């Protein structure tokens, strides 16, 4: 008969499925607690431990899949609870319908954890040690799958839960996947110690691994931020997310809000520009105000005049229209130079499913609009940067911050600074805005760039090239944050080579799995 685990693990788990069920739930809880909020970062190093124990001690691979799915469900519900509120408040769904939408979301993404449990339990039937060795490679391979498959949703990948520390700098080589790998290796070492406590050297190997992590964390502590010579003014307008609020902000109905933003931008630029000969940068967030640059002469005139008066480069968000009859809206970032001329139109490429479009395979559901133009937006297709005498500006919009390849492609095209405009007011006062900021800061580390982040109402902040939040604006109010940054040219390994590490993990996973197919399970 198969011998899937050692005597120690047999004692630890026996044949009681209830223990493995509890372990799966515990992993989901630990994963949730490791992320904002409550941000108990140390838990990231053991969060996968219960699931690994449950999977490698399970003889039934179908149950291995189930334990993984349960971990995924608990984690997704615990960390993405705000999804229900968004669908209620902006998707026109009642509570029951919003919960049904969440259930559909869980059906799409919890199986990624299920595959982890299934493969781990199957490989453990051949060799528990092989399953433990496989676990970090398999975890990263499945995170890469989450990035590209279905609609792509790499939100709260495990590595994002690692505390802001020296180890974060590994992302400049491996992206966030490298930190996920280290966290799962740590859990695998602890699992090995629990499963085979009498094996000589296991405890020492785990101890050495932890010591190496501590030394690496201290040794990789980043230096001071590069000298910042350029001024940026990040404007947070706090536009209400409702139809009446949008009407109140419509410049042709009420020019006061627009004038207020212009005056705020000019005042902040003037107050912080003394003695600086370089061109400042004014960044307005993504927001829900009806600011139409091409079709709204009041808005266009105000922005062009602001750029000229401030002698600044200006980034603003607008809706443009594509198609033969100019009927297909696009979420667009405009960059103007100090003469008020457009030097970049960047059309958002990775749209938000159920927010800016509805996937064709979901159109039979009632998950209709989260924004007024939902299901009508069309994506852009080109990565371009705004070229200025000071340096090149790469802009990406809101949700695109969770896709590391977008910021990387902009950096490859010459961006010396990255700008992320967002509207995190959709998330209300939930943990989502903190999660989004935490994710975005890795784009700085991966590409060694300052990241200027202006949000309608979220967390407006500047992030240095090492992923440290240098300053942030107060939330839930109309304000502007004056910060200083620098255009940089240095390129990282990740910028030049992309997801080599993650794809290597995919390759190793396939090799181990393929080898297992060719080997008969061990017998007692």
Write structural notes for this entry.
α3 crosses α6 and α7 packs antiparallel against α9 (177-195). Helices cover 46% and strands 14% of the residues. It has 17 helices and twelve strands. The chain folds into two domains: 7-222 and 499-518, no CATH class; 230-487, Carbon-nitrogen hydrolase (Nitrilase/N-carbamoyl-D-aminoacid amidohydrolase, 4-Layer Sandwich). The strands form two sheets. It has a six-stranded mixed beta sheet with strand order 5-4-3-2-1-12, with helices on one face. The longest helix is centred in the N-terminal third of the chain and has 32 residues, at 95-126. Residues 1-5 have low confidence and may be disordered. The radius of gyration is 25 Å and the shape is globular. With 524 residues, it is of the alpha/beta class.
List the helices and strands and how they pair.
Blueprint: H1 7-13, H2 17-34, H3 49-56, H4 61-79, H5 82-90, H6 95-126, H7 128-148, H8 171-174, H9 177-195, H10 202-219, E1 230-236, H11 243-249, H12 256-271, E2 281-284, H13 297-310, E3 313-322, E4 328-336, E5 342-347, E6 386-387, E7 392-397, H14 404-412, E8 415-422, H15 432-447, E9 451-455, E10 461-463, E11 469-472, E12 479-485, H16 493-497, H17 500-518
Parallel strand pairs: 1-2, 2-3, 7-8, 8-9
Antiparallel strand pairs: 1-12, 3-4, 4-5, 6-7, 9-10, 10-11
């Amino acid at each position: 008969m198969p011998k899937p685990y050692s005597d120690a693990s047999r004692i630890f788990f026996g044949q009681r499925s209830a223990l493995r069920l509890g372990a799966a739930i515990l992993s989901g809880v630990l994963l949730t607690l490791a992320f904002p909020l409550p941000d108990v970062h140390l838990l990231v190093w053991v969060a996968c431990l219960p699931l690994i124990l449950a999977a490698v001690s399970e003889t039934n691979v179908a149950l291995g899949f189930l334990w993984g799915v349960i971990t995924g469900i608990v984690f997704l519900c615990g960390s993405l609870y705000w999804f229900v509120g968004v669908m209620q408040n902006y998707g026109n769904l009642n509570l029951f319908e919003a919960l049904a939408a969440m259930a559909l979301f869980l059906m799409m993404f919890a199986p990624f954890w299920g595959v982890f449990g299934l493969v781990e339990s199957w490989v453990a039937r051949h060799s528990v040690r092989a399953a433990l060795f496989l676990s970090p490679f398999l975890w990263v391979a499945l995170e890469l799958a989450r990035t590209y498959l279905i609609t792509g949703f790499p939100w709260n990948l495990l590595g994002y839960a690692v505390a802001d520390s020296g180890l974060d700098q590994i992302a400049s080589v491996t992206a966030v996947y490298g930190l996920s790998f280290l966290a799962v290796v740590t859990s695998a070492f602890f699992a090995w110690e629990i499963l085979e406590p009498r094996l000589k050297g296991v405890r020492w190997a785990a101890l050495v691994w932890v010591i190496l992590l501590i030394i690496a964390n201290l040794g990789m502590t980043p230096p001071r931020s590069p000298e910042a010579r350029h001024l940026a003014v990040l404007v947070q307008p706090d536009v209400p997310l409702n139809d009446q609020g949008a009407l109140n902000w419509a410049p042709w109905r009420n020019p006061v809000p627009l004038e207020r933003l212009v005056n705020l931008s000019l005042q902040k630029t003037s107050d912080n520009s003394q003695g600086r000969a370089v061109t400042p940068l004014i960044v307005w967030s993504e927001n829900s105000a009806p600011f139409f640059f091409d079709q709204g002469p009041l808005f266009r005139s105000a922005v062009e005049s602001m750029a000229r008066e401030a002698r600044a480069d200006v980034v603003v968000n607008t809706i443009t229209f594509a198609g033969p009859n100019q009927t297909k809206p696009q979420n667009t970032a405009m960059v103007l130079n100090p003469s008020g001329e457009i030097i970049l139109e960047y059309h958002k490429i990775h749209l938000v499913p159920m927010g800016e479009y509805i996937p064709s395979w979901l159109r039979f559901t009632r998950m209709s609009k989260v924004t007024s133009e939902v299901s009508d937006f069309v994506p852009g297709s080109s990565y371009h940067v705004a070229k200025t005498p000071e340096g090149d500006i790469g802009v990406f919009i809101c949700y695109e911050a969770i896709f590391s390849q977008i910021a990387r492609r902009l950096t490859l095209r010459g961006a010396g600074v990255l700008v992320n405009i967002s509207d995190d007011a959709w998330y209300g006062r939930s943990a989502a805005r903190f999660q989004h900021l935490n994710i975005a800061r890795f784009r700085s580390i991966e590409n060694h760039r300052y990241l200027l982040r202006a949000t309608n109402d979220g967390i407006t902040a500047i992030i240095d090239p090492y992923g440290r939040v240098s300053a942030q604006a107060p939330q839930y109010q109309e304000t502007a944050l004056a910060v200083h940054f620098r255009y940089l040219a240095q390129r990282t390994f990740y910028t030049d080579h992309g997801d080599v590490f993650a794809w290597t993990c995919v390759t190793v996973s396939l090799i181990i799995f393929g080898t297992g197919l060719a080997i008969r399970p061990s017998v007692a």
